[in-house]
Amino acid sequence: MPDRPDRPTGGGPRRRSVTTPAQRTRRAEPTRFAAFQLLRAVADGAYANLEMPRIIRQRALGPRDAAFATELAFGTVRWQGLYDAVIAVAADRPVERIDPEILDVLRLGVHQLLGMRVPAHAAADQTVGLARTVVGQGASGLVNAVLRRTSERSLEEWTEAVTPAGGGVPALAVRHSHPEWVVTAIRAALLGHARATADTVDAELSALLAADNVPPQVHLVARPGLVGVDELAADADAEPSPASAVGVRLRSGDPGRIAAVRDGRAAVQDEGSQHVALALAAVEVGPEVPARWLDMCAGPGGKAGVLAALALEAGADLTAVEVTPHRAALVRSTLTRLTARAEAAGRSVEVRTADGREIGDDEPGRYGRVLVDAPCTGLGALRRRPEARWRRQPADLATLGPLQRALLASALDAVAPGGVVAYSTCSPHVAETRFVVSDVLKKRDDVEVVDARPYLRDAAGEQLPELGDGPYVQLWPHVHGTDAMFLALLRKRPS
Ligand SMILES: C[S@@+](CC[C@H](N)C(=O)[O-])C[C@H]1O[C@@H](n2cnc3c(N)ncnc32)[C@H](O)[C@@H]1O
């Protein structure tokens, strides 16, 4: 079992439980309560990354407590699949027969015992205290019994005990705490993008699933023309990224406290997303194409922030389109500084709340460069969104597929002859990536596929390593340290 920071680390000697009734905590301690609150909010549909900062503010947790509560909550959500298998054995019943609130309390207790270096007595004591506070005295017997049984084995022993015999996808799913359908889809993606062969796919798949469980280093983008990477790095505990010309890697600290992030000159952004925007800006277009760029699926505005900055440097305008009003408002807020800068330069950075599928008909041939960063399952960004793997369903693909095809077809209509469309997803799923592109291209003869690999360059200007045979690019967390972004560059033939 590979050693990695977020892997549950409780592999030491068996821990004997726990405390006597008289010693037990009667009330929930604030960090555990905050983590429980997060789990309940996620069960109600909240996004962990957005909800946790709110809970931390509401409970006025200091930096150390906030870090502990976040590690406890996010680790528990990520490892929920493995922990539920442990709880089912320790409670001697399927987890579906445990009250959801008690189950969340148990998951938090199991993560403290198996995944964090919390001493067994403290984990049990605090978890029983939490159960009393949030569920009532009646739950404490079950919680105490399950934690006592859990503490009798190490993480490695539990993993061996609950992993289905016979290996393959079911075993990897439990061992790496992913739903089986996600493991199957990622396996197919590794093969479908020719990252792996039949001989190497199992090792690649294990490495990728392991990478999904490591909380990523925070990457920042220095928006071109607004702040330099050296200046941004100097303002934070950070260093310029070797892998992206506009990237900075945070060593520690809260990005929200960095002045350049607060005032919109910089932002948190995975380097894979930075490469997508940089590649679209760098690819050659015909001499006659309009100096007008379009971001067709812009919310919340991460890539639009880079594209708008690059468009202004290139003397072009940017239109950012987003169908959901509140996400369009986020794009407006992201682009405030760039909109003002564009006006001062006699150019335009504009945000529209609209359906991207209609732009091809409404504005045929109007744009020189178009980004379709399509709505997708997000299976390439599981490191970043602890709950996403449990929330997504295979049926989502059936809804997303037609939308992705319609958006790409519209983009190809909206781009001028000689102009380029970038189609990207933060998913490597073949049904959202190369199948979408090949289906749309089958119906047209006015598009050529551009090899995207030369446009992905590191900070020294060298092409990124391990980009495969092209023409599409598929990045991988376990290879490139980025989200699993897919990128296709499609040029409309000059008429
Ligand atoms: C993957 S996200 C885009 C992320 C964004 N490019 C960024 O870097 O921050 C896809 C976005 O497309 C939007 N969307 C979905 N359907 C759309 C449509 N028909 N037209 C325009 N936007 C759409 C979603 O609301 C979502 O905000």
From TrEMBL:
One MF annotation (Gene Ontology) recorded for this entry: RNA binding
Domain of life the protein comes from: Bacteria
Annotated Pfam families: Methyltr_RsmB-F, NusB
Keywords (A to Z) from UniProt: Methyltransferase, RNA-binding, S-adenosyl-L-methionine, Transferase
Domain SAM-dependent MTase RsmB/NOP-type per the UniProt entry, residue ranges: 193-493
Binding site for S-adenosyl-L-methionine: 297-303, 322, 355, 373
Region (Disordered): 1-27
GO biological process, one term: RNA methylation
Family annotation (Gene3D superfamilies): NusB-like, Vaccinia Virus protein VP39
DNA repair as UniProt keyword: no
PROSITE patterns hit by this protein: SAM_MT_RSMB_NOP
Catalytic machinery residues: 426
UniProt key word Disulfide bond: no
Family: Belongs to the class I-like SAM-binding methyltransferase superfamily. RsmB/NOP family.
Protein name per Swiss-Prot or TrEMBL: 16S rRNA (Cytosine967-C5)-methyltransferase
